[in-house]
Request: fold
Amino acid sequence: MGCPAHPAPVARPALEVADIVRACGEAYRANHRLSFQQERVLRSIAACRTAALGGHVTRCDRCGTRVISYRSCRNRHCPKCQTLAKQRWLERECADLLDIDYWHLVFTLPHELNALAQGNPRVIYRLLFRAASQTLLEFGRNPRWLGGELGITMVLHTWGQRLDQHIHVHCVITGGVLSPDGKRWIAAKPGFLFPVQALSAVFRGKYIEALAQAYQDGELRFAGSTAPLADHRTFRGFLVSLNNHDWVVYAKPPFAGAEQVLAYLGRYTHRVAIANHRLVSFDNGEVRFLWRDYARGNKTRIMALSAEEFLRRFLLHTLPSGFVRTRHYGILGNRCRHQKLARCRTLLDQPAPEPREPESLEDMMLRLTGIDIQRCPACQQGRMGVIASLSPAPILPPIPKATGPPP
Reply:
């Protein structure tokens, strides 16, 4: 007869976002109006890898040890549920990398748009992708700079290191273009892609024009601090103010090869607002976490927030349902991606990637971590096999607030 069942041993940080959500989530819900998506994020994170989601029991075929494993929530805002999704995405992207230089640019929205983004995230984020991609594609097609079609991968981030709003897109860009007739690969000049100040001006103009059109089409909602913008003249003045200062477009040095591109994409594509390893402590209703002060030489500092403010900032970065935060343009656009990449490889005299066989979860974990998740954690000799499924545990409804003294 086997040993008593026990939860699977999983290395985990001493403190997780889930701990804060479980401790303070109900109180936060009681005092704040949440969107459906924000409510779903809180509930998913709180339930992740607990009996609330069910799971399965495995038993060793040698010593009889039994282990309980609970299911993950798979919510894209959960700090614990992105590793395998990120790895699968990266390996698909790896097959499409060309052996060329790649550039990294960041397009940032001014903070004056933050309040409008809180009430209209889908519109504000969509226009950011549109304005940034159109700007890059136009510069790529301009014979003054390159004269062809770029390949662009964009990743949306909405946070800064302190969990505040900092809406921007990271762009990985091919250091060259496919000519309009498809007969030449035109490489960018060493150490230079596009003039950043010119990119900034064009990006600003395209975004403001698109925002004005969204207003005319009735796509924007106004409430709270943005309510005055519902007035036509006030909104027009707001657009003028946005046009009166430079917008930030930042170009980083080019990547040193495809491996560096993959490492970068791995850090950014599936990142959530804050990772568990950055949490320092949670005591007496106060959360302390690490952040990098980029203005002072990347110095690591500790920020302290009330749990309520921590959850408020965390939920600011909840994406609209179905919103795609990683997008491709130009020769990487989904419609003609494979044909155009094949043409680029022919012109660059580079071989096509070898097809990859489908891989099981167990094999992927073994390859990536060296851990055999089917090996018995007790005797280290036997193999673990599923013997039972666990249904999700019933979740009790929240206790209603008291409306008067008890009887």
Q: What stands out?
A: Residues 83-273+316-348 form a domain with the Replication Protein E1; Chain: A, fold (CATH 3.40.1310). Residues 6-10, 396-407 have pLDDT under 50 and may be disordered.
